[in-house]
Write a structure and sequence with these properties.
Elements: H1 3-20, E1 30-32, E2 37-42, E3 59-66, E4 73-78, E5 84-86, H2 102-114, H3 117-121, E6 125-140, E7 143-147, H4 150-157, H5 162-173, E8 182-186, H6 216-232, E9 238-242, H7 267-283, E10 290-292, H8 316-332, E11 340-347, H9 353-361, E12 371-375, H10 385-393, E13 398-403, H11 421-436, E14 441-446, E15 466-468, E16 475-478, H12 480-489, E17 497-503, E18 509-514, E19 520-526, E20 531-538, E21 542-548, E22 552-558
Parallel strand pairs: 5-21, 6-20, 7-8, 7-14, 8-9, 9-10, 10-11, 11-12, 12-13, 13-14
Antiparallel strand pairs: 1-2, 2-16, 3-4, 3-22, 6-17, 15-16, 17-18, 18-19, 19-22, 20-21
Enzyme class: hydrolase
InterPro entries: GH (IPR017853), GH30_C (IPR033452), Glyco_hydro_30 (IPR001139), Glyco_hydro_30_TIM-barrel (IPR033453), Glyco_hydro_b (IPR013780)
Keywords: Glycosidase, Hydrolase, Lipid metabolism, Signal, Sphingolipid metabolism
Length: 559
């Protein structure tokens, strides 16, 4: 998009906002990326969407995003009407010229709409009926979130204006943003840091001296997160901690990475380390909701030739002993006895066998775990049956995805692809599948990275939902992935309960929730190349039909 075209669109959107009286709603400032549309945020401008309000029990609201360029566009209507509602797709604006007339402008816009690739693909319209049955309920949601790594701290600290950081925080955690309430942080360092690090790095520091004071890197991170809470207004931020590695002196190989496990003589020291870290965060104003038994335990056992970042290996047998004899009793007999303990923090292929082997080693050791956390990276290869078997084996556990990003595979570009709708669709499919199969929450990986997909001290670069412009440090770009996640998180608050939502054919993928305020939020995903007529049939409200564009995702809210 040319500069003049972007300015023209920006002015029109501002006029629409002013006329429509949208309050906290601020439209996307559109920019063309490598493969699609981005939304630009600066210190004095960033897009937001005020959550829709319904005036009566028959009204519905719809939030829409599309490959062609819609970003949280809003529309509304009513159940039990003869009208078929239509979500109009984004149309590229036409810049003004000196000799332009009203008629020529209308003609240019009509031609642009008629001859875009997406318009030609959408001459066929398919149809589907979606039945929402709020009386058939499933899991209760814990929420959605992102991760605040050392890389995020570094990028935010380099913003030229503090207002830009505020926009980043609000974009993810404010109600007018994505409404996130979960967050993952590392206990010590991780690969998305400028270097490997941990507390108590001094050789033989079994008393863990110094863990009553924040490391300088956590001083920065904690200050940022406190500011995030302040400016976003997030009411119940739930922080989950996970350690990538113990200090090298506690490990069998005395290194940050490679084939290295925790020495048995330090099992209790490592449990005490976790407890001290929880207290340290609490003392510095960041209550911790949950910790896990460690990040990706197989990295230091099986994948040490490929994983170059800090990691520590566990077998399920060794982890069962550490959890059952050390970490579990240490936490449960402390002032933080109610903290949530998650197990695994690794890939789908380890479910549920990891937990079965733990119980075989220490019967009932898994009882110490409140939840099981998953990394999504191999979900496309290892089927959902792993999860179904897990929920059958451990039906009372809280299930969350605790890390996700794109660019980790050898066949993927290990860097951001600006404007990629394909990557947004990958997110959408993964969210839908896991939520449909019982997951209670989702925590994405870094909330922001630079243009190369870092910083990362071993160049393990990937994509992220927001990308910083580090040439100027004066703006960041919201990717299509950002909006894809928002279609799940924004209108599905903590405490929402999944209900049955059954489409009549494969043209629509969907998931629905009964919110604490008794309203229904339904995600509608049309990944096809044709427009789609969706007839929504609610067990209490009746029905209506809406036509949505090809390659689009929507969130429907109704009473």
């Amino acid at each position: 998009m040319s500069a003049s075209k972007g300015v023209w669109l920006f002015a029109v959107l501002l006029l629409i906002a002013a006329i429509g009286g949208l309050g906290e709603t601020v439209p996307c400032k559109v920019k063309d990326g490598e493969q699609g549309k981005l939304c630009v945020c600066t210190a004095d401008y960033c897009d937001y969407l005020e959550n829709p309000t319904l005036t009566d029990d028959t009204e519905f609201a719809l939030i829409s995003s599309s490959k062609q360029g819609l970003r949280f566009a809003t529309s509304s209507g009513h159940f039990e009407t003869e009208v078929k509602y239509t979500v109009k797709d984004y149309v590229e604006p036409v810049p003004e010229t000196k000799n332009e007339t009203i008629f020529s402008r209308m003609l240019d816009q009509a031609m642009a709409s008629a001859f875009t690739l997406e318009s030609r693909e959408s001459t066929i319209t398919r149809s589907v009926t979606l039945k929402v049955n709020r009386s058939k309920t499933h899991q209760t949601m814990a929420g959605f979130g992102g991760s605040y790594t050392g890389a995020v701290s570094y990028l935010v600290d380099n913003f030229k204006q503090p207002e830009l950081a505020d926009h980043l925080f609000k974009s993810f955690y404010a109600e007018e943003g994505l409404g996130f309430n979960l967050m993952r942080i590392s206990i010590g360092g991780c690969d998305f840091d400028l270097s490997a690090w941990a507390y108590a790095e001094e050789e033989g520091n079994t008393n863990l001296d110094g863990m009553d004071e924040l490391d300088e890197r956590d001083v920065l991170r904690v200050s940022h997160i406190k500011r995030l809470v302040e400016v976003s207004g997030v009411k119940n931020l739930r922080i989950k901690g996970a350690a990538w590695s113990a200090p090298p002196w506690m490990k069998t190989n005395n290194k940050w990475t490679g084939f290295g496990r925790l020495q048995k003589q330090y099992y209790q020291t490592w449990a005490d380390y976790h407890l001290k870290w929880v207290k340290l965060m609490e003392d510095n104003g960041l209550p911790i909701w949950a910790i896990s038994t460690g990040n990706e335990p197989l990295n230091g056992i099986v994948f040490m030739y490929f994983v170059r970042f800090m990691s520590m290996g566990w077998t399920p047998q060794a982890q069962a002993i550490w959890l059952n004899d050390h970490l579990g009793p240490t936490i449960r007999n402390s002032e933080f006895k109610d903290i949530i303990l998650f197990g695994n923090d690794d890939q789908r292929y380890s479910f549920p066998h990891w937990f079965k082997m733990m119980n075989n080693t220490r019967p009932n050791s898994v009882d110490y775990l409140d939840g099981l956390s998953l990394h999504w990276y191999w979900d496309e290869i290892f089927g959902i049956s792993h999860i179904d078997e897990t929920t059958e084996y451990a039906p009372d556990k809280l299930l969350i995805v605790s890390e996700s990003c794109i660019g980790d595979k050898p066949w993927q570009k290990a860097a951001p692809i600006l404007g990629s709708w394909e990557r947004a669709e990958k997110y959408s499919r993964a969210f839908l599948q896991n939520l449909q199969h019982g997951f209670h929450g989702w925590i994405d990986w870094n909330i922001i990275l630079d243009e190369e997909g870092g910083p990362n001290y071993v160049d393990n670069t990937v994509d992220a939902p927001v990308i910083a412009n580090t040439t100027t440090n004066e703006e960041f770009y919201k990717q299509p992935m950002f909006y894809a996640m928002g279609h799940f998180s924004k209108l599905v608050p903590e405490g929402s309960i999944r209900v049955d939502a059954v489409p009549s054919n494969v043209n629509l993928d969907t998931v629905a929730f009964l919110r604490p305020d008794k309203k229904i939020a339904t995600v509608l995903f049309n990944s096809g190349r044709a427009d789609l007529d969706i007839t929504v049939v609610d067990s209490e409200r009746g029905q209506f039909t809406v036509n949505v564009p090809a390659k689009s995702i929507h969130t429907l809210l109704h009473s």
